[in-house]
Amino acid sequence: MQVVRKDKISETVSVYLDGLRIIAAALVYLSHEKRESLTGGFLRPLGSFGHEGVVIFFIVSGFVICHATTGRRDDFRGYCIARLARLWSVVLPALCLTVCLDLAGSRVAPQIYAVPGLPPMWSASWHSLWQFVAPALFVNKFGGISIDPGTNGPFWSLCYEFWYYVAWGVYVYFRSWWRYIVILCLALAAGPGIMSLAPIWILGAALATLLGRQMRPRGWTVAGLGVSIVAIAVALREKYVIESALTGLCGTFGPVVQDYMLAVIFAVNLWLVASIRGQSAMLLASCAGAIKFVAGRSFSLYLYQVPLLFFFGALTHDWRSFVPRALLVNGLTLACVLGFAEVTERKKSIVKRLLGRFVGVAS
To answer: What mean pLDDT do residues 136-159 have?
Structure first.
């Protein structure tokens, strides 16, 4: 791919990407918040699109990483430090929080944690240690392994994303032919699960390249943008109908094909947004401050939400009144997310400096 210069990505696209981060995190949040045992099914109709939120995350991630790395003078080591700082600044605290809240909440109301498919509760065992270490090293879904850290199911996608980062770093920072051999070996080792969603991440990177080359749509962009929004709405509303039809046509690959279809629609939507000018761009710019504030804490929302929801759901398990319980569980969860974000996600520069010093000493 050609170099993508950072100054060629408009502020409109930057704000819209932040907006997509917020939407994706909200979809994932609602998919967990809807549990009857936690909030009485509050906002349940909106809680069916958590996986679609992850699809959006992958597109945005591929776009941002491509844009951030090409045209930069960082080496592979600097790239690894930046990516690990971004991840570990939230991943490690989230794992510690998950262990503490799961243990405390399961003692208060064990029935809240009696969920089919939830892994065994944390204990002083090698299994629990591996349950903590595997997601910290991003191997919890690698090569056919399937490990969830307690209640924190969203960790599955970080393993996927981490190995996409690794493959992209090899592609960008190593120029010899053997980089393709390394990427192929990584793909084979990662397994079909991780590789099945890699095209969505690559689609985001390809879109960043197109926009970097100033390849923007011309003509009926506003109409096209409207059509893309309607297509997204229809794809979400008729999610299960489409999934059933695709499963009939493609068998077990039906859900993956559905993910690809949705990813393409979102990519087209983002491509069309890049051509927005005039009042529409001004409207986005007027909301930029608020959007960037929330987006800067979206990673924290993604990783802290589930153990917090379970914990506060356990503390209020005997409440008979539906609305106060739902409001309290959601309010406390979101307040804690904002608080944790300020001392973790917003302080990732500290982790980056520590990693830089460690690597400097090690080398």
So the answer is: 94
Q: Which residue has the tokens 């749509």?
A: 217
83: helix, strand or coil: helix
Over pLDDT 90: what percentage of the chain? 59
The answer to whether residues 52 and 164 belong to one domain is yes
Flag whether 126 is in a domain: yes
Classify 211 as helix, strand or coil.
Answer: helix
In degrees to the nearest 10, what's the CA dihedral of 257, 263, 268, 270?
180
User: Is residue 156 located within the same domain as residue 72?
Assistant: yes
Alpha carbons 115 and 117: distance in angstroms, whole number: 6
**How far is it, in rounded angstroms, from Cα 202 to Cα 209?**
11
pTM: 0.91
Residue 76 is part of which domain span?
6-215+274-362
- State the DSSP code for 274: T
Residue 1 lies in a domain: no
Residue with tokens 């994706």: 24
Q: What is the pLDDT of residues 199-209, one digit of tens each?
A: 999 999 999 98
Describe the crossing of helices 155-173 and 126-136 by its angle, rounded to 10 degrees: 40
